[in-house]
Amino acid sequence: MTTTAITNIGSLVTNDPALGDGSPLGLIENAAVVIDGGEIAWVGPADKAPAADESFDAQGRALIPGFVDSHSHLVFAGDRTQEFNARMSGRAYSAGGIRTTVAATRAASDAQLEANLVRHLDEARRQGTTTFETKSGYGLTVADEARALRIAAAHTDEVTYLGAHIVSPDYAEDPAGYVALVTGEMLSACAPYARWVDVFCEKGAFDGDQARAILTAGAAAGLIPRVHANQLSYGPGVQLAVELEAASADHCTHLTDADVDALAQAADTTVATLLPGAEFSTRAQWPDARRLIDAGATVALSTDCNPGSSYTSSMPFCIALAVRDMRMTPDEALWSATAGGARALRRTDIGTVTPGARADLALLDAPSHVHLAYRPGVPLVSAVWSKGVRAY
Q: Rg of the Cα trace of the chain?
């Protein structure tokens, strides 16, 4: 098997304090990384690097773990430009906008849905994303939810069943009937393709009792819970996520002190995943990352890429927003976009540059990871390795 040494790395982010300077990022200056197959084989100072079959000169630039995007909605069709334009003209976002995408997704062919998914994955990869989670939730029928997950599962292991995105328009007068479908026939059809089960616990979507029923049914079918929690208003989502030991409570925009305390107490179990692209795109209140971090919660950053409320696939953009508007430091934002995302997916093989980890790497056209926030909007990712293979 061919080994590759990436040499002359000006600044290497390992996310392992024991390997580097003792900080959470585990920084090593003047570093090298050796890849063997799809894994990291060696990490350390460049002058101590072992021989390898091939070499790549980083030319003094920064190397970071590939981004881990732990929350996206990429199986969809259609466009909601008009909705975005109206919102930017003063109309607030509401959960009902999802119905527009549901209609377009139902009308699309499998080939169209997959082509759109692949286009967004390629777009994200060029910006350094090497792991992504994605959800169903734009079909809301048994057949459409199952095909969305089947299409997604061909491209990632991190697939989430989100039949409970909103109450299907077909059940507008019978929400209880839709919950029965989501926890019954639809779950049976979708579970073989998914690892996770999710629910939008929010006014206009599903209340706490409905969300509990959906998540517990998913767990009984072998799926691990995640929760869209406290995005648009205060509610039971965060407390429910912690109680059910969900891997993540996502959004976390409107939090009481009790919610923050619960996430801090559950820091080893339930990650608070923040999605600043949604607040940017809806002019909504920013999540307070500083409050969560200072309390001891584990925080992840993700794109929430979807056609309605956060149409960005750029993790660097989300890092810049988190630093500018959510009171995170550049170090915290990068950790949350890599190691934090891995925690939210309960993965130990990604989000770090350590021996035995998957060789997912992003080379920046900059001397430091701080440039991700320092130079917002600039395409800084100049090379990407996914499972040890140059992907970009």
A: 21
